[in-house]
Amino acid sequence: MKQHKTFCRICEAQCGLIVTTRDEQVISIEPNRQHVASSGYACIKGLKMGDFIHSPDRLKTPLKKVNGSFEPISWEQALREIGDKLKAIHQQHGGEAIAAYMGNPIGFSLWPTMAMTFFLKAFGADKLFTPGTQDCANKFAGGERLFGGANEQVFPDIDHTQLLIAVGTNPVISKMSFISVPHPMDRISAIEERGGKVYWINPRRTESAKRAGEHIAIRPDTDVFFMLGFLNEIIRRDAVDHDRVTRYMNGYDLLAQTAAPWTLQRVAAVTLIPAEKMYQMVTAYLEADGAAIFSSTGVNQGRFGLLVYWLQEAINAITGNLDKRGGVLAGKAVFPPGPAPGPQQTSRIGNTPYVNSTIPAAIMADEILTPGPGQVRAMFNMSGNPLLTCPGSHRLAEAFDHLEFFVCLDIVRNETAEYADYILPTLHSLERADVPFYFFTMMGLMPVRSFSYTDAVVAAAGESRDEGLVFRQLCRISGMPLAGSRSLQWLSNMAEKLARVPYLGKLTSLDRLFLGMLIRSAKLGGLRKMRRYPDGRLLTPNQPGDYLGQRVKTPSGKVELAPADLIERAKSLENTYREELAKKSALKLIQKRERFTHNSWAHNVQAFVKGERASNYLYIHPADAVAHGLTEGGSARVSANGNHIDIPVRLDDDMMPGTVSVPHGWGHQSAAGLSVASKTTGVNVNIILPDGPDSIEPASGMAHMNGVIVAVTALGPGA
Ligand SMILES: Nc1nc2c(c(=O)[nH]1)N[C@H]1C(S)=C(S)[C@@H](COP(=O)(O)OP(=O)(O)OC[C@H]3O[C@@H](n4cnc5c(=O)[nH]c(N)nc54)[C@H](O)[C@@H]3O)O[C@H]1N2
Ligand SMILES: Nc1nc2c(c(=O)[nH]1)N[C@H]1C(S)=C(S)[C@@H](COP(=O)(O)OP(=O)(O)OC[C@H]3O[C@@H](n4cnc5c(=O)[nH]c(N)nc54)[C@H](O)[C@@H]3O)O[C@H]1N2
Ligand code: SF4
Ligand SMILES: [Mo]
User: Fold this and answer.
1) Which ligand is nearest to the CA of 384?
2) pTM of this prediction?
3) CB 29 less than 6 A from any atom of ligand 3
4) Residues 345-374: pLDDT tens digits?
5) Is 392 a pocket residue for ligand 2 (Cβ < 6 Å)?
6) For the chain, which domains are there?
7) Alpha-carbon distances, residue 331 vs 158, 308, 628 (angstroms)
């Protein structure tokens, strides 16, 4: 038996784990109590990783679709055929015809994600879709405008704050985003224990709100009015740190003009938060010695995520809470910044700007189906299940069917892979050497600033290959050098040759060489040195007082409080306000994450889908249920955008009236490659969510997944 110290790569908490193995099999996984950041915290998903890695459904060889069914083939054949087809498509249609979707799990592994971008660059392909436009692209777009770069981000100083207003987040379940917080609820409860205050702004009384703090119910997708009202009241009271604003910020007057029409009384009519409650919250925020407003995925997935982010950070900034102990801190990256972004690109469909080099996933179907120069004909899907996780699933199915060439790289054959021409077996995170998630290494969003390195814990299952290696090999075979660099490709080819030499092959690996170089660039020594810190290595903490006037990356060196396009867009909010008033009685649909699910890929583990957990449900307030003729245990039809889903009903008085919720990631019944998930009975909520260029937030490309208006009707027995 061997014990390995590693860290989990499922969510942003990145908990330290101790994995016990025998003969390359995971025997048990325990939280690492000595880990410098997670100190013994881990959740059920990390601890159950053995069930994912050793699932009987793991792909062991490449698969090729022949006459409609998949047949195992050798890697040699797979790479040769894929390389040939790629070359042909590239020659005929150019790089614009080649696109990729890079899913969430692989986002936690630095080398394969970089290798994929090198691969795309080799072909002059720039259409990279990611889940970023389903969860956070508004923050990247906001970082560019306010702080001078997508990776310039701030996070609440959670361990010192005296007041946290948490908008659209549910840490008990999610462990949060854009901040690496193992045991988040202990740290949030500690705010109250030291005499501070926590507010949850959320249409649902969440598991987190039941543990600590005060829940304030908000009508979905009205957070922009919440922020405007909050800002208006701060300015009305002149509770602005004018000295700080003058020295370190631009655009205050325009910001103030934007907030001027939005009094607490006015916004209350659409947020449904009483004006007196808002008044109290503003007072609490202003009186606290160190306060932070933080918003997350629940808001990002609305129609105004970018505006919300802007207003929220403007509030934190003008009240003096930015760069202050207990306020919000600007993360310090561990690695030096990458090359400056090239000229701003916009999408062929909808003319939407690429955010952080990615194109909105909600226009993927249009990019594939719309003829003309630049039409996508070949796609690579690495570690993603867009059919279940991106909006407009029916159109995506049609689009994937329409592709000339589709390759999926995954650890299992998921629903999206059914549309592939080839499926390539790749590594589970425990089979790969790694460093922490890019939000921490490149953005520094860590209350406990630290760094870790892990070697692979077990050998690759079957013939599974590292995704990075697959892309390097495809470049070699197609004669298109990685990232357009002949020397990089030469290095890659040499590394491949060396890897075949007995003994020496085990010692040399390009991915480890690359990780070593990165670690050295952060002045942390090489791999050998990092291996001396199996419990993680503490780094100089993120500190208040070293950001404003010193590290702000905008051309002016100041925080930009009034980005021109956002000021312009804010004018349209008068229309939105009127529409909200007119649609006050409409039901709005929100998402819901659950403890035993992780987007679409945790349902293939038996323990996670036992009994009632084998389906998702429509959660609805009892009063709304009565109004719509629904009963507990009955079925409902939920319709929007010309599509519908039929789903069992759960009455839930934690839901705000006027709001319904359906967890995503379900609908596995026809997944031939998922022996457990295919027996579940849930439905795919993304069938009814809108896609296409009109559905996305301009400038951020965010999909509209929260606050979509739906119609709900009861289904009779047998419907
Ligand atoms: N167990 C589990 N954990 C996960 C995941 C998972 O699938 N399962 N997914 C991971 C991923 S990929 C991510 S990105 C993170 C996300 O983690 P978080 O950023 O914490 O987001 P969520 O957990 O989605 O919580 C969003 C909250 O917003 C609320 N909400 C919905 N609409 C609105 C609205 O209009 N306004 C406001 N104010 N609130 C709203 C919802 O009720 C919900 O409680 O979680 C990660 N952790
Ligand atoms: N309606 C609605 N839709 C949503 C959301 C929502 O709140 N509501 N949330 C959105 C969010 S926040 C996110 S992040 C996305 C996630 O969307 P996706 O990333 O598209 O989906 P996942 O379910 O995470 O699927 C991941 C796939 O990666 C595979 N995988 C796991 N580990 C590895 C690995 O190491 N290598 C490879 N190659 N494959 C691996 C899994 O087997 C699985 O098939 O979903 C989004 N979709
Ligand atoms: S909280 Fe996140 S990082 Fe920690 S064990 Fe669970 S899934 Fe893994
Ligand atoms: Mo996400």
Assistant:
1) 2
2) 0.98
3) no
4) 999 999 999 999 999 999 999 999 999 999
5) no
6) 2-53 (3.30.200.210), 63-129+354-441+450-538 (3.40.50.740), 137-172+180-333+549-567 (3.40.228.10), 586-715 (2.40.40.20)
7) 13, 20, 47
